[in-house]
Design goal:
2 copies of one chain form a homodimer. Chain A is mainly alpha-helical. Chain A is built from 15 helices and 2 strands. Chain A has a two-stranded antiparallel ribbon. In chain A, a hairpin with a 2-residue loop joins strand 1 and strand 2. In chain A, about 55% of the residues are buried. Chains A and B meet through helix 2, helix 6, helix 7 and helix 8 of A and helix 2, helix 6, helix 7 and helix 8 of B.
Chain lengths: ~290, ~290
Amino acid sequence: MGSVQSRMEGVLARLLPPASVAPARLHEAMRYATLEGGKRVRPLLAFAAGELSGAATQRLEIAAAAVELIHAYSLVHDDLPCMDDDVLRRGKPTVHVEYDEATALLAGDALHSLAFQLLGEHRLADDPQAQLEMIRTMALAAGSRGMAGGQQMDLEATGRPLELPELELMHIHKTGALIRAAVRLGFSCGRISEPEQQKLDRYAKAIGLAFQVVDDVLDCDASTATLGKTAGKDSRQGKPTYVSAMGLARAREHAEALRAEAHAALQPLGARARRLGELADFIVLRKF
Amino acid sequence: MGSVQSRMEGVLARLLPPASVAPARLHEAMRYATLEGGKRVRPLLAFAAGELSGAATQRLEIAAAAVELIHAYSLVHDDLPCMDDDVLRRGKPTVHVEYDEATALLAGDALHSLAFQLLGEHRLADDPQAQLEMIRTMALAAGSRGMAGGQQMDLEATGRPLELPELELMHIHKTGALIRAAVRLGFSCGRISEPEQQKLDRYAKAIGLAFQVVDDVLDCDASTATLGKTAGKDSRQGKPTYVSAMGLARAREHAEALRAEAHAALQPLGARARRLGELADFIVLRKF
């Protein structure tokens, strides 16, 4: 896992525009938002799914970088004062605090474009038509019927209690869509049968939700220092969480059930899916 | 010209997610930001360039819509309080005034993703590899070395006088990149020789700059009612403009010179370039 993480640091550093190129402040902010931080869960998933489909490492690097850039852009925008208004991310001041709001807005926008630039300019699949399909997958996952839509649902949910199905729908969009895209982009860099794709998609759906359930549990449980971001903020902001919807103990059980579901989806794939199984464990058992 | 504009209204209305689909408020805001407004200069350019390369109308509709969505997203973000803080656009309240800042931010983000979704999911070129190249073109035009980069240069220029070359560099990024992409995406939907592509690119560069020079002249000259956006704002905000850099009379001459250059680039293409020539005239001679 550490090897993918350190590899991705180098890949992202190489693919992001250098801070020496104009407009320097924007490029600096893009690098600040992306480098030296994060668990790189989405790249890890893309690599593990790609290993299973026999994908070449150079392709996986690009696909994983594109997903991570979309994730990084979403965090920059999400932290802005008009959204979550957060000052701390990955143990550092958020981009608009370190730079300014306008630069943060544009850095997010430019990271968003850069992700699609990478997906357009590098060879990621034997068949270019399959690569166009990957671009569509990513755009759908990021857009109004994916991540951005989930953030809107989140906005609208603040201050009112959500029923569990509504909460689940929100997270399927907000976090789940990009996690599924990470797995799909990863295996699409190689070759894999349609039934196997469906199993991986079921796995990705389960861990996408598990990821959010665990986030909510940790937000309630852990300290700001451990998380590297402001702890306990969701409940103070009146945001519905799994913990507020079902209590801490049942939220923990729910995460466990989703972990079991993810493993069940992988089971027919045998030893080739070992790494994906380990990632399911990492996502649910992590302490930060 | 009117026929492309009304056709695009229908195309965009069909391609944008319906306001009845959840998250409804986000989809409403995306439609509000895009429909019933604007001169549709970029779609007009894409259609005119595509006519020259014998491109099919269905392809041009998608390419033109994608460029217009990128343009619309950039206006929504540009109007936000942390950027230009504008309350009026196309004669209507800006998106963050009509909705709220967070919804405007997300609507811009979702329009941005939707543009790439369209470019990935519809057939736009005979060769899918050429379509990947179109996606790269669009991403570069929108990103930190294109439009978003130009906006950053604009931010940093506010309140200090710019030399003409710096001003030009800013506008080549801020407005020019997307106008060039509109022309390139348009002709890429059909077939055209490499030397002809270069002529069209020279044309697009000239009108991209002319567009901005004329904008600056109009901002200084016209009334808010005619423009449908706040007039005289740039100079009040201390933004460098062609008028502040070279005076009104010389700015007008500069626009004329760029129009002549655009026509010169088209000249070898003969009658097939008639519409592009008309658009150069429209861009420079417009009163709004």
